[in-house]
Each structure stands twice: as structure tokens, then as C-alpha cells.
Write a structure and sequence with these properties.
Layout lengths: L13 H8 L4 E2 L1 E7 L2 E7 L2 E5 L4 E7 L3 H9 L1 E6 L5 H8 L11 E3 L5 E3 L4 E13 L2 E13 L5 E4 L2 E4 L3 H15 L11 H8 L3 H14 L2 E4 L3 E4 L4 H22 L5 H15 L2 E2 L2 E2 L2 H17 L4 H8 L3 H8 L8 H16 L2 H24 L6
Antiparallel strand pairs: 1-11, 2-3, 2-6, 4-5, 5-10, 6-9, 7-8, 9-10, 11-12, 13-14, 15-16
Helix pairs in contact: 4-6, 5-6, 7-13, 8-9, 8-12, 9-11, 12-13
Length: 382
């Protein structure tokens, strides 16, 4: 038995457990929501990003706290990420009070939620699922809006507030990601944590952080027997994803093209031009910037149908992961992709459904063909 452990095998004393997990540094947030005309808020450290595509957050709240019931009732919550100098604000929202918002500057967010003006970052979430775990409820929320300022986050460690530098872990994540996209490791290759940490000359915690993020990106998967494994990517995966996107966008063209406003079309054009500027000749100026801009343009196009179910379905396609695995494995592409998307925007400006349909189909076929070209150099899988 390890020193300080208590209880029989398979059980841990609650006080000892609290002491041990206190060594896990975590970010400090204030969860806020609103029911009727009443605002609710509480300090929470059991909050984390759950998914990138679609963007989702996880918040774990003790059922004994009024905010848990309030979030259940409202179906939405905001995550206010605190900065390193906001320890007193964290304590204020962690202390029972009839008015936790006293002397706190607050504004109203996109979902009508109270946002702490001085927080380092804000994420507004709509609850899509709840899970009960012991004394707590886990709220899985789809991110509806997000914004961030500059500064360092406040963290909680061993019962106190402090600061934590994330630059090193982000740098390690970037290095591992580059190894995978450069195909240093083949598809279905297991990545032992110790081996990866030794290769990068970092501690295992940093390597584990990288693998966890890469799992969210869809580049690795967790195998119960082998650990983290390079997720294979093949023609079938590509075809199914791009065909699904096409089906959604064709539906949007049928539903929305006749009623889009001039302002909406202008915004679609603006997003297209942001994306197009990141491809010069046949080379990406900034692939990840291009990927984000491409996703932003197509997500906005889908939103023009004003159908939340379509937008939600689009968000679950993992388009970014597919494009990262394929297009991101080479610095070059073709202006044909930009041209096809440009024709799609032109068709929206002319309110021409036939031209929009042809452009969407052409763009889909170009994407699938490009993936086939890339896979031809890798034996059919990435």
C-alpha cells in the first residue's frame, strides 16, 4: 500500500482522495446562468473542453449547489474563465451569498446569460446532455459563442489559487501533431506514452496532454488494449464525410437561397474572401488558418437555412479532422477549390439555385478526388 493510503484494496478514504486530487492543477472558472429574472453563479474548476468538432464543453457541478438546478432548468450556462489576478472574484462566487454578483461588472451574452466583464474568456453553452456521477451532474454543452482576451489564467492547486503556463504543453502538442501529419508513424501504429515522451524529451504529463488533444482532433483513438493508436484514414471515410456535407448544403440551397438577405450574402462573401486570401497560387499561406476560414464559411452557409438541426448535424461531421488528415499532409493544393467555392458564393449573390447546386457538387467531387491523389502516395491510408 502506498504511504498515506487508507482503506482496503479498491477503496480510498474520501479525505485522502481529496488530498491527492488536490495535486491536479486546474483552471478556475465561474459558471453563470439565469432563470427568469434571477442570476446564478458559482466558482468551478471541474470544467474542460470536451470536443473541438463540434465545439463542446463539460461542466461538473455538485447537485447540492443551487446553480446545478438552475442550469438544469435553463438548459444553458456560461463559462467565465478567470485571469491570474482574480482570486478574490473566485472566492466571492465560491461563498454562499444572496447576491454573488455584487460589485461585479456584468453584460448579457448571445444566449441571454450573465457574463463577467473582467473575465479572461467567455464560452456560452447550450446543454445537449446530462450525466449523473455520484453527487454531481455533468453538463455537456455545445458552445454557441466564445471570446477571449489577453493574459494568463488563474489556476487551482492544492487548495490555493495561482498561475500556470500552458506554452510548453501547446508546443509539445504541435510537435506530436506534426509527426502524425508527416506520417512519421504509420496508420494503426500504437503510441506508448513513455516512448513518445522519451522521443520528444519531455515528461509523460506533457505527452499525455498532447495525445488527449490529438484524440479530440480525430488523429488518434484510444484502444482499450493498445492505448493511443494512430487513427487510419481512407477513401471511404473521406467520401462519406464530404458526401454528407454536400447533402446538407444541397438542402440549404433548396431551403434558403430564395430568402437570404443581401446582408447575409455579403457576410458569406466576406468569409469566402478571408479563406481565399490564405491560398496563394497552389500553396497554403497558413493551412490551419485556411482550415478555420473554410469551416467558418461553410458553417455560415449552413446556418442560412435557419434550421438548428441542420447546423448541429453539420457540426458533427468532423470536417476539420478529415481535412487535417488529408489536405494537411501536404503544403500544396489547387486553386480549383477556391474557384468552386467562389462560384457557389456567386450563385448565392444571383439567387441561382442551379448554379449553386453545380458549384457545391463540383467542390465535393474535387475534395474527394484530391484525397484519392494524396492516399495514392500512402498505400491507401493515412
Amino acid at each position: 500500500m502506498n504511504p498515506g493510503s487508507t482503506g482496503t484494496a479498491g477503496s480510498v478514504d474520501a479525505a485522502h482522495f481529496r488530498h491527492v486530487v488536490g495535486h491536479l492543477a486546474s483552471g478556475v472558472t465561474v459558471i453563470t446562468t439565469e432563470t427568469g429574472a434571477r442570476r446564478h453563479g458559482m466558482t468551478a474548476s471541474s470544467v474542460t473542453s470536451l470536443s473541438v468538432d463540434p465545439p463542446m464543453m463539460l461542466a461538473c457541478i455538485n447537485n447540492a449547489v443551487p446553480t446545478a438546478r438552475a442550469v438544469s432548468m435553463s438548459g444553458r450556462y456560461a463559462v467565465n474563465v478567470l485571469g491570474e489576478g482574480q482570486g478574490e472574484l473566485a472566492r466571492q462566487f465560491a461563498t454562499a451569498s444572496s447576491d454573488k454578483f455584487r460589485d461585479v461588472a456584468v453584460s448579457t451574452g448571445t444566449l441571454g446569460l450573465p457574463l463577467l466583464d473582467d473575465a479572461l474568456a467567455h464560452l456560452e453553452c447550450e446543454v445537449v446532455e446530462t450525466v449523473t456521477g455520484g453527487t454531481h451532474t455533468i453538463f455537456l454543452g455545445r458552445v454557441a459563442s466564445a471570446s477571449a482576451g489577453r493574459g494568463q489564467p488563474l489556476t487551482y492547486f492544492r487548495g490555493g489559487f495561482g498561475r500556470f503556463e500552458f506554452a510548453r504543453d501547446d508546443e509539445v502538442y504541435g510537435r506530436v501533431r506534426e509527426l502524425l501529419l508527416s506520417r512519421v508513424y504509420p496508420a494503426d501504429h500504437a503510441l506508448p506514452l513513455e516512448e513518445l515522451a522519451n522521443r520528444l524529451e519531455v515528461d509523460q504529463a506533457a505527452a499525455f496532454y498532447a495525445l488527449t488533444r490529438l484524440s479530440s482532433d480525430g488523429l488518434v483513438r484510444r484502444d482499450p488494449d493498445r492505448g493511443y493508436v494512430i487513427a487510419p484514414f481512407d477513401v471511404r471515410t473521406s467520401d462519406e464525410t464530404f458526401d454528407a456535407r454536400l447533402a446538407i448544403e444541397l438542402g440549404v440551397i433548396a431551403l434558403a437561397l430564395g430568402r437570404v438577405t443581401d446582408d447575409e450574402v455579403a457576410e458569406l462573401r466576406r468569409r469566402f474572401e478571408v479563406m481565399a486570401a490564405l491560398l496563394v497560387g497552389d500553396r497554403f499561406v497558413d493551412f490551419h488558418g485556411y482550415l478555420d476560414a473554410n469551416y467558418a464559411m461553410h458553417e455560415y452557409l449552413v446556418s442560412l437555412a435557419r434550421n438548428p438541426l441542420l447546423t448541429s448535424t453539420f457540426g458533427r461531421l468532423s470536417i476539420k479532422s478529415v481535412m487535417t488528415r488529408s489536405f494537411g499532409s501536404t503544403p500544396g493544393t489547387s486553386q480549383k477549390f477556391v474557384a468552386a467555392q467562389g462560384r457557389l458564393v456567386d450563385a448565392f449573390e444571383r439567387r441561382d439555385p442551379e448554379a449553386a447546386t453545380r458549384a457545391a457538387v463540383d467542390y465535393c467531387e474535387l475534395a474527394k478526388e484530391r484525397v484519392r491523389e494524396i492516399l495514392a502516395f500512402t498505400g491507401g491510408r493515412l
